[in-house]
């Protein structure tokens, strides 16, 4: 078993501009805000509410997610840098309006250098509570009550790009797709895929979420949830937690494509190289799942939902370009995406 990285090692690996720790005994708030880069503009990134086992675990997640946001903004050509907020705790047990307002007051203190929005454990309803204390939050302009459908739309376009690359046809009709996670984005992606006529297999640890997609779309439920990895399918779409492409799961995969909405799907960059070696096409997560960020940025800039959807459609062509460079240079797609992001960050 690997020894967890020290705080010094993590800081050296991700090289953030700023890391801020917060603890408020009155509300029970324990939080971190990481600003990875402001090279392209003020830092932006959703806030994740999650029961981390330690401050160190929360820091590692926040650093990784903030770096991914820098790369996501760079590849999507958005005038923002990468940041991330994390709140330590169980959102079902620890979340209160007082705690959310205390966190929002912290965001307000950054005065626009860090803007945030919904993420795992933070709902559109929570955003409304936080708006009482800060204007630096996606959703304040109200172009859409929920960014999850826009994220799902981007993943849908991305899957089409993957199928075009692997099978020479972007149609998803009759294709077998295994979706891990039927929550916010997963639900909306399943809805789009079902309408397209895909054959869907779905896993989730939340039985109610499974029952909902089963009754509405007739998907096949995969039990136990971990059986989803070995399922024979055309594409595996991770739409839940990150780090699910790892030493344990990778040898089990029985698909041609890995493409979903989850952040940080690769446990480590080398796992993307292994997917490439196994002949499995991987859509870099921060490229394919950028729809939500695009919608959030449109909201922050006073744009429109129509403009957000128009920009989200570009994910299709963006991925085709990455896949073509990867094919030509015989390297993994995530390496191409990282290089594109880093080159843009260096220019500014």
Q: What does the model show?
A:
By secondary structure, the protein is an alpha/beta fold. The chain has helices at residues 7-14, 55-75, 91-94, 97-109, 124-130, 148-167, 184-196, 207-217, 269-277, 285-288, 291-300, 305-312, 314-329, 333-347; strands spanning 18-24, 29-35, 43-44, 47-50, 81-88, 114-115, 176-180, 199-203, 220-221, 235-238, 257-258, 281-282. It has 2 domains: 13-68 and 80-130, Rossmann fold (3-Layer(aba) Sandwich), CATH 3.40.50; 148-347, NAD(P)-binding Rossmann-like Domain (Rossmann fold, 3-Layer(aba) Sandwich). Strand 11, helix 9 (269-277) and strand 12 (281-282) form a beta-alpha-beta unit. Helix 11 (291-300) packs antiparallel against helix 12 (305-312). The longest helix has 21 residues, at 55-75. It is globular, with a radius of gyration of 19 Å.
Annotation keywords:
single chain; 348 residues; alpha/beta; Rossmann fold; 6-stranded mixed sheet; 6-stranded parallel sheet; 12 strands; globular
In short:
By secondary structure, the protein is of the alpha/beta class. The chain has helices at residues 7-14, 55-75, 91-94, 97-109, 124-130, 148-167, 184-196, 207-217, 269-277, 285-288, 291-300, 305-312, 314-329, 333-347, and strands at 18-24, 29-35, 43-44, 47-50, 81-88, 114-115, 176-180, 199-203, 220-221, 235-238, 257-258, 281-282.
